[in-house]
Structure formats: C-alpha cells, structure tokens
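Q: Start with the shorter request: fold the first protein.
A: Done. Sequence, then structure:
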Amino acid sequence: MERPLRQRLIAEFVGTFTWIFAGCSSVVLALGIAQGELTTVGLAHGIAVAVMVSSLGHVSGGHFNPAVTIAMWVPQKIGTSDALAYIAAQLAGGAAGAGVLRAAVPETFWGQVALGTPTVNASLSNGNAVLIEAVLTFFLVWVIYATAVDPEGAFAKIAGLAIGLTVAMGHFAGFPLTGAAMNPARWFGPAVATGTYADWWVYWMGPIAGAIVAGTIYDTFILAPHLRMPLTPPEELPHGVGTHGEEDHA
C-alpha cells in the first residue's frame, strides 16, 4: 500500500538530511580536523545511505537524491507532481543537514573544506568531472533498479546494504577527483550553507545524466521485457511449491 505523500516527503527529507549531515561531517573530520583517510569518508556516506534506505525505503522508496527520483520519473514509476515534491523535500533535507552541521561546529573546522562541498580536482576539466559523476551515479542507480525496483531482485530484502556499499564504492573511486557527490542534493546542501557555487552544473548534469541512462537501460532492456513474460501456470511449478513459494501441504 502506497503511503500518503506527506509521509513519503518526511521520509525523503530525513533520509537526505542524514546522508548530507553524516557525509559532510565525515569530510570535515577527515580533511579539516583529523586528517583522516578516504575510508572514513566512504564508509560514512555508505553507512548513512544503507541505514536510511533500510529504515525508510518502505515509506518513500528511499530515493534521497534528485537524480534517483528523475531516473524513476522518466519511465513513469513516479508521477510528475510527486517527483517535484520529492526533489523539493530532498533539497530541503540537504540544506537542513548542512545548515545544522554548520551551526554545530566552528568555522575553523569546516572553513577550509567549505563544509564538505564537492569540488572538481584542479587537474580535471569540468567535462572530465561530469563524466566521472555520471559513471558513478550510473552504478548507483543501476544497483537501485536491480535490488529495490526489480520485483525479482535477488537481494530485495537487503537492498539498503547493496545501495550503501555502492555509495561507498563511488567515494573510494571518485572522491579525490570530484568529491563523488552522485547526488545534486549532496552538493546543494553544503553549497547553500557556505555560498560555494563553483562548478555547480557538474553536480547536476553528471548525476542526472548517469541516472537517466542507468534507469532507462535497466527498465527498457531488463525489467520491461521480463514483466511482459507470461506467468508460469501453477500446474507447471515444481512439485510441493505453491504459487507464492510456500510449501504446498494440500
């Protein structure tokens, strides 16, 4: 049963808030205070996403990311008005998460890393950065479709873990290059909180493009053909197994 829109928007706000607060805090700690390792940043982002998808996915679908919502909207798995409301809630959650973090720690901690706002490595062009963000987001949305959207995804019950690990993988692979945002809200929150808007279009164009490509390919070539296949008649199922996989004791 689909939850009321208000409940879904609250879930999207809280989930995105958690992603941005925990993610930005890890960047501030790792690069601005403790000089930690990339592992800290990757795991903080990945665990935050895994926890929120696992706990709130049944309420809203666990998007927490405008790029993911757009990837669901293109094949009309979410309506236009709901998609716009989701994106507004996600951006608000991102801004709130970064704003609370800014209020919680002194500027001497977060100033040199702009509260964890993603930035393009000076050795890369913006075109390189867009491609990297697109590829990383492709991986993320592909895993979301395969585990949380596909009704026969082998790991549907642990989709949060798979999605969180994909976010962590993206940080290990791309954080030193682009900040591995994979999410316009991940850029938007700290950018608004600190007034840091350099290369803003990279963090919209890259994730959205990668998300649309992943969602369209999976939906068109894997999901849609499978859903059009005729269901196996009960009499052709293996002996002893009912139509829902339960043991048939009749």
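Q: Next, the second protein, separately.
A: Sequence, then structure:
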Amino acid sequence: MQIHELPTISGSPSGGYFATDNGTQTTKIDYTALAQAIIEQYNASTLAGSAQSVKAALDGLVQKSLPTEIAPRTTIASNDDLNTYTTAGIYRCATATIAASLSNCPISNVGFNLDVVQLYNVAFAYQRITASSGTTSSAVVEVYERFINVRDSMYGTWKKVPTRAEIDGILKPYKVGGSASDVDDCNSLPRNSIGYTYANALNSPDAGYQIFTYGINDSNKVQLALRGTVNPKIKTRLLTGGDWSAWVEYAKQAEVDALDARVSALENA
C-alpha cells in the first residue's frame, strides 16, 4: 500500500472514518487501516519525535514472548516422577488415576496443577501443587510445596500449606475468648493454654470461667479458673498421675481480711 499526501481532513472521526474533501468529491478514509498501513510502511528510523518512540514501543511489544512461568500448561503423564519436573513451567495432572500413578507426589486422589519456578540460576527449584476437591465455591483447595536442589539432586519433603481454618483449629485452645463449642471437656485442654470461657463444657468448675492450664512437668499440670471482675472467683485443680483433683475455690482478699479482723477481735476480747 502506497501512502500519499492527503488533503486536509475536515470534521471529526465518525463511525471509524474521517471524511475528507478531495477536490470535487468527498472521500471516506478508514483511519484504523490507515494507522496500520503507516506502521507497516515505516520503521522507527524513518519516523521522528513522538512517532518514532511509539513505533519503537510497538515493535518491542511484538518481539516480547510470554515468560515460561505463564506459558501454556504441559500435561503430566502417568507414572511420571515429579522429581524430574525442575524446568520452570506450569504442568497439569488431569485425573486422580494419573496422580495415583506418580512417584514423589503428595496426593493421589485428585488431579492438580504443578507450578515450577527456577531459582538462583536454575540451581534450585520451587514446586507448588494446587488441588481442589470439587468445582463449586465450597470446594476445599489444598496446596503443597517443596524446594529442590537441582544441582545436587536433593529433593525436599512435600509440606501441606495450612488453610486459615486449619490454623484456627490448631490455635483455638490458646486464644483468649471463645465459647463452649470450642471444647467439649476441660480435661482435654493442652498444656500452657492461655484461657477460654467454657460455659457448658465437661469438668468446668462453673459457667463463665476462663481456664488457664500450666504444665508442671511431663505428666502433671495445674488448671486455674477465673470468673468475674466485680466479684471474682478463683478455683484451681491439679492433674497428677493422670487423675484430676477436685476444683478448690480460693477465698477473696476481702474475705481473708474480714476473717483476720474477726480473729483479731476474738484475740483482743
């Protein structure tokens, strides 16, 4: 396509065209096609100023290719060994049957995606498996990861990345607050738990107590129960040799002071 000097363009672009006055007749010019023709006709060295920089930028975009990490997925075949997947890329295990046949794979009951990222001049690799138990919004997603020393052929152990719910389940007995549903039996509280309110749990001293567990040695521990701020009550019990003692309530300081006063009054009578 040859580009010639165009007559003055009149009006504004409309419907993808410029309307031009070409002497005795009006000509419609497709300015999208015209721009493409200019790009094809000229290279960056023949353009000047801003046009030259635009052309260079366009050429740079065309020349760039997608990085390996986001390239189309490669299929993982049956009986493959995931230790051999150290080249950067995205790999797909299509079915649970294929997953069950793989070597050095942490899951066998579902298909998955395997992401491989090369690190430190390809001397090391990071593998990440993402699997889902279903296709609905309520499906559980599981993630496993490991590092590989490619240079020395050393393969890390697959570790499951815990979900938020799993972390909460682990930390639950160690948090302040909560409700009776968090534990069924105060006897099952782990050592060094920080305290929970168990309104209806088994072996609780009473409703509304916060219970703190302290380890004494490998087999014994003490539980301290606190309730109320205006009229506090304190109870303790001891686990010895696998058996819990009964809860013992401690006297309030005001009660101790009142008792001391009565003793003093009797002694001075």
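Q: Describe the second briefly.
A: The longest helix spans residues 253-268. The radius of gyration is 37 Å.
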